[in-house]
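Protocol step 4 of 6: structure prediction from sequence.
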Amino acid sequence: MQKYQLIATAAAGVEALVGRELRDLGYQTQVENGRVRFEGTIKDVLRTNLWLRIADRVKIVVGEFEATTFDELFDQTKALAWEDLLPLDANFPVEGKSHHSILHNVPSVQAIVKKAIVERLGTVYHRRTRLPETGATYPLEVAIAKNHVLLTLDTSGSSLFKRGYRKAKGGAPLKENLAAALVSLAHWFPDNPFVDPVCGSGTIPIEAALIGYNIAPGLNREFAVERWVSLVPESLSDQLRDQAMDAANYDIDLDITGYDIDGQMIEIAKENARSAGLSQAITFKQLAVKDWHTDKINGVLVANPPYGERLSDLDSVRELYRQMGAIYRQMTTWSKYILTADLEFEKYYGAPATKRRKLYNGALRTDLFQYWGHKQR
């Protein structure tokens, strides 16, 4: 099988976690801002789409070069062997972005790249008329940064955070891959209790259960690459999915609970857990933060409470932080990980965090306030 240069894209702040995921899968990596580079065959493309929990997309690098004129962009794009990836009937939309570059007009950049590919394929496939573009979709992107052009083919289709299990959501849902990142950062082991006290639509507990059972996060969805019959050997996708299903371990007893003060959100969380096939693995209950207590030890608590972005909500949200502090500070064997955009969180919680980590929930800067527990043997 041909080897490709590959990129797993990632949100700012979690690139190192994606790098660790790829290394755990057996790949050598190069971590950069917003992405992790690695290499592999089309089998590896399918495998990483199935298994990466924290990445956004897996892309094939078609080519990269320097360009400061449209002629350079056209000629170097046309020189690439597009026919190795795109069949005659490929539908290949071109997205674009440009930062701090001479070629800053994105619509023009997209049009030039599209024209160059059309001319290349027309010559190779002996087509003087327009290409049909009636087949499978091959999403392309041209990204220019400081005059460096990166041309990629997106193998994922919709972003990898779209696992396929979330049938309903609340007002401000956490993306599934950020929820998986929070669980990863919490260093939770499946034999310890796991609690989300403000679970909303249940994303964090569901991602914890997927990790606990070693379920591939992409099992319930399809990827763009699976429709590329000219590149993907027949039955390869089924083979990798079968292997992923065999790798799951449902014999582990998980202790995962999600609470929320809103009964409607609890029903939504239960529906999402059922959709993920995890309704037996997670207990969801309607309960306010101030009313929760536990006698369990050595647990992990991960929370994404409301941020109080509107001034009218800020007082009630900070009261919630006070309630969290009053209860959680007494739980010395538990590790607590709380994600919020309120950078004054520690003041209202009543204790400085052991560590803070900057993360992004979409475009919103948030901090993960970490309070490490002292495990009781």
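Step 5 (inspection) to follow. The radius of gyration is 23 Å.
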